[in-house]
Amino acid sequence: MEEQNPINRRMFLKELGMMGAGVLALSSPWLSAFGDVAHTGKERCRIGLIGPGSRGRFLLSFLLQNPKVDVVAFADVYQPSLDEALKMVPKAKAYKDYHQLLDDKSIDAVVVATPLFTHCQIVLDAYDAGKHVFCEKTIGYTMAECKQMYDKHLETGKIFFSGQQRLFDPRYIKAMAMIHQGLFGPVNCIHAFWNRNGDWRRPVPSPELEKHINWRLYKERSKGLMTELACHQLQVGTWALGKLPEKVMGHGAITFWKDGREVYDNINTIYTFDKGEMMTWGSDIANKFYGLEEQILGNLGTLEPERGKFYYETIDPAPAFLQLINKWENEIFGALPFAGTSWAPETANQNKGEYILGKEPDNDGTSLNLFAFIEAVITGKQPHRIAEEGYYASILCLLGHEAITNGTIMDFPAEYKIDYPSYNTQALPKE
User: Fold this and answer.
1) What DSSP character marks residue 360?
2) Beta-strand (E) ranges in 33-130?
3) 3-class SS at 368?
4) Whether residue 193 sits in one domain with residue 312
5) Does this model's pTM top 0.85?
6) First-to-final CA distance of the chain
7) Do the Cβ atoms of 363 and 345 come closer than 8 Å?
8) What are phi and psi of 424, to 5 degrees?
9) Is pLDDT larger for residue 6 or for residue 41?
10) Neighbours of 182 (CB within 10 A)
11) Confidence of residue 378 (pLDDT cuts 50, 70, 90)
């Protein structure tokens, strides 16, 4: 499988990162994390994983593929999670208290994959302990927590990544390059959704562990679908549009899974932008037929990056358009194992769409996200925009949740804007 070949992918992204004048590099400047990958082969990064539950162990499976990584410690309050992690790395140390892990001065960085409501304090403590941080999304339980975590990153100068893996997904990278080149016209609307059919519950061995294991279902520990799923797709929308929304409204309800949960199982939100553009995001976890997707609509065409496809409004594109697509395919992506020729002339008269990378997607960028973090820790260089994209994606989720729970149209709060030229935002001056 492709995910098991991280070196080839790192070299691929290194080449993209060196294209300083190219639209690909402009769309994805965080790829600079791989700029020194050829010179760091003998370096080792010692990692501690805080929260080796199901998501944590998923991340661990990729870290263990990276020859530059030594996973040396785990921390979790739940012993079964520690036991499972130790099966994967028997020589690692295991702690019930994450502070003990942070006390190990030989650990360079931590990966935080704990429940949402615990993120902020763990991250702040990790920075105080001199560690670099990879934190799963959404980074904070409140907007104030997100700002506190981001400010601490700036204050300490330590690396800060979040689990926004689409930033490192080749199909999304190329899709955004095409959008920002103007090949689909101005983006005027984005429809994003993530549907499932399941109660989102996990087996509980004892009743007193219900909220510990099923923390996503309870308000004091989670914000539900907005913080668990929306973070990825809202970031895709602002990435495509190159700016933040001005307002958000929404509605949520428990319409099907009436099982004692406190968070909604059915949500819809609308984010509006300065020139009238709109981005919708919704999730229904009692029907999975349409799955998940971001439908990015321009007047010349449509992209569905999750499916890895794009479509033209007019079936016969201009020769110059075809020439540019072919150039990208052959010169940039043609030599890669997951690429191929996505444009076949015989399909020009059929509006069935074309694969962005020449075939169906087979990864989601998680491995590259983690490998970029490792490179950043080794070099001590924070990639451009990566912390800011994770910060704003989290803020948008929490703002949507607030609009739903308050039942009001919410303005983007000025106090949570940060210095970010890419979205033309500035932080309020400190008092």
Assistant:
1) -
2) 45-50, 69-75, 93-95, 109-112
3) helix
4) yes
5) yes
6) 53
7) no
8) 55, 45
9) 41
10) 12
11) very high
**Assigned domain for 339 exists:** yes
Residues 147 and 186 in one domain: no
372, 319: one domain = no
Q: Does 334 score more than 50 pLDDT?
A: no
The C-alpha atoms of residue 60 and residue 93 are separated, in whole angstroms, by 15
Please indicate, yes or no, whether residues 175 and 248 belong to a single structural domain of this protein. yes
Domain identity same for 161 and 280: no
Q: Sorting pLDDT into bands at 50, 70 and 90, what band is 14?
A: very low
CA pseudo-torsion sign 393, 108, 102, 212: positive
Number of folded domains that form the chain:
2
Range of the domain at 62: 2-167+367-383
**How far is 30 from 195, CA to CA, in rounded Å?**
29
Radius of gyration of the chain (CA): 21
pLDDT of residue 330: 52
The residue out of 305, 330, 364 marking a domain boundary is 364
**pLDDT (tens digit per residue) in 123-158:** 999 999 999 999 999 999 999 999 999 999 999 999
Region label for 23, one of left (φ > 0), alpha (ψ between -120 and 50) or beta (otherwise): alpha
Q: Which residues pair with 279 in a beta bridge?
A: 190, 271
